[in-house]
Design brief:
CATH topology of the largest domain: Rna Polymerase Sigma Factor, Chain: A
Bound molecules: nicotinamide-adenine-dinucleotide, magnesium ion
Helix content: 40-55%
Shape: globular
Largest sheet: 7 strands, parallel
Radius of gyration: 21 Å
Number of domains: 2
CATH architecture of the largest domain: Orthogonal Bundle
Oligomer: single chain
Strand order of the largest sheet: 4-3-2-1-5-6-7
Number of helices: 16
Distance between the termini: 52 Å
Amino acid sequence: MSGFLAVGLSNSNLMGQSNHSASASGPKRIAIVGSTGTIGVNCLDVAAHLPERLQVAGISGHSNTRLLKEQAEKHRPDWVAVTDVVAAAGLKQGDLPSGCELVVGQDALARKVAGPGHELVVSAIVGAAGLDSTWAALEAGKDVAVANKETLVLAGALVLDLAKRRNAKLLPVDSEHSALFQLLQEPGALGRVEKLVLTGSGGPFRGRKRCELAEVTVEQALAHPTWRMGKKITIDSATLMNKALELIEARWLFDMPVNRLDAIIHPESVIHSFVEFVDGSVVAQASPPDMRLPIQYALTWPDRVWGPTRRLDWRALSKWTFEQPDREAFPALDLGLAVAQAGGTAGAVLNAANEVAVERFLAGSLKFLDITQLVVEVVGAHTHDASPALNDLRRADGWARKEAVLWQNNQTTMAN
Ligand code: NAD
Ligand code: MG
């Protein structure tokens, strides 16, 4: 259970000396990387509702300079980073409030994240692009509230190890992992787990057979029934690759053997996960599908305070339903479990291939069922390294991206 020590759960010392409550030293200072995304915007909303608890020290966005300017005016951070050097032309130092520094590029962001002025970093960049800032934050000993699941899929073992070595806490933001984190707060709880069961809405194509998925459109795949999210995770939810990524994420965050992980479909997205304990008791965490709760919990942990999250309407509540995932229509789920079991370079390859496939699907050049097919084939073709260093993972990521493009080009040639 060593990995979870880094998360802070079973470490009574960390729990006892929380720096998360409003104290004489003032609000907790946070930097949000990916502040222009769905998670970033929700995080800023939580911070705006809890000014005595949270103060925004820095923000970053890739290309939406107009929104970054608005966010800087409202939240008055010390710095704003634009990571896309071309888009950065859209924002000048003079556009920002006085005292707010503008920096440009990925390296500048990593330096800011590792620098003074904040104690916690919210990792809300999408994809493997979030690895460097998460790594820089942990290396500098900052706590990280991690939404960017791809970084854990890519390099979970090394990220957890780094957090442990630097005595930094990793606080889950993904709703399922936040639910598990909330359910496992009792000292020693992790050692009494029989199973961690992640729930998933089933996405927009729940109930469809495999043969009914061949011609689905981008627009249909983006119409998620319960969550409003960025495009990449919305497509991942439609293929159930999101659940696969989350099973791998849980494997690392909770240092859990794969045979103790499972997933179940729960279309209402109100129960965010279950823990089954060794005595047969099953405990669930429920709240409306609103990311502000898991974000807030990560930022105020171990405290709970009033916040802006929507409430369950007990008078309107009638039933919560569950069903087994259709593993034939959505083979990503079993692929995720196999990759979680394999460890090593497998996660990096799965993640990179999936990023390319989703990009191609969104661009209209790959069919829906080919997203998972491409990932299966790239994962199957790779030479597995069981204990890679960070550079090996970066190489595996690069190899998988090239391989994914080749696979897709071959498909296109065969079709013509
Ligand atoms: P999004 O697409 O809405 O936002 C992504 C953010 O990353 C933006 O701020 C964008 O500017 C930034 N970004 C994109 N490419 C970048 C690059 N190359 N370099 C630096 N920054 C870059 O995505 P989102 O829905 O907010 O998701 C963010 C992360 O949180 C993802 O890993 C996702 O899986 C995870 N997550 C999201 C939700 C949700 O409800 N949206 C829930 C759980 C987990
Ligand atoms: Mg989730």
